[in-house]
Amino acid sequence: MVDFVCKENYVFDDLVKLVKILRSECPWDREQTHQSIRRNMLEEAYEAAEAIDLENTELLREELGDVLLQVVFHAQMEEEVGSFNIDEVCSGVCKKLIERHPHIFGKGSASTPAQVLDKWDEIKRAQKGQATHTEAMESVAKSLPALWRAEKILDKAEKAGFDLTAVCSRKLQPMDVPESVMTADPETREDEMGDILLRAVILARKLDVDPERSLGKSCDRFIRRFSYLEKKAGEKGTPLSGMDITDQVQLYREAESERP
């Protein structure tokens, strides 16, 4: 018999101990690797997100447990080879939260959610040694869904002072929809945007193009071109936020020709 007491309720330490036992005693659990259960981590996270969307608290409790199991399982595999353990994982995230909330634990100040996020990004860039906005874009995980990754990359570009309409200067306008839609209520705009994206996927299928891969490659190209812009702006001694849209368009066109 294994050294584990079954009871009515368990705590975090019980979960850690249980996973250790499973990794030692169960043939299936013992043979797993980070790669073999990588997809499990993603699936459990999406199922937790669905529980949130459904506003189902009982389901959310269950799904968060499944997500937590994945975290403990991956940490246990690393403990077995002497890299780190779950306590170090907890310690690391606690330190990160303290460091990135100086308005709570230090001498910083932030009175609005936007100021908190700006400070978080600033501290994150400093901690990761990201000297440029390009490096911040490159840090966005390529494992994210392409549409999600594109949104995060473009958000960083816009925060750097880049006018995103410069990308579309010689192509289709970014929002080629009737004015009535642009001024409609949020729900209608969301529906119309969904239809635009759906039509893009339909076109991709018609052309036998993988839309996820296609957008992912476009994200990579955008980062390379933004890097060119950022470098040239630095040479001119003018930040992107201080550039006229015409100058940004010209630089982006140069980037298109310089970096395929």
Word description of this protein:
This protein has 2 domains: 12-97, Orthogonal Bundle (Helix Hairpins), CATH 1.10.287.1080; 140-258, no CATH class. It has 13 helices and no strands. The chain has helices spanning 12-25, 27-31, 38-54, 57-80, 86-99, 102-105, 113-127, 133-138, 146-159, 179-182, 186-206, 211-236, 245-258. The longest helix has 26 residues, at 211-236. The model is unreliable at 171-175 (pLDDT under 50).
Give, in order, the helices and strands.
HHHHHHHHHHHHH
The portion of residues forming beta strands comes to under 5%
Radius of gyration: 23 Å
Count the domains.
Answer: 2
Mind summarizing the main beta sheet?
A: none
Q: What is the typical, i.e. mean, pLDDT?
A: 88
Helix content: 55-70%
Using DSSP, what is the number of strands? 0
Structural class: mainly alpha
Q: How far apart are the first and last residues' alpha carbons, in Å? A: 63 Å
* Uncertain stretches of 5 or more adjacent residues: 171-175
Number of helices: 13
Shape: globular
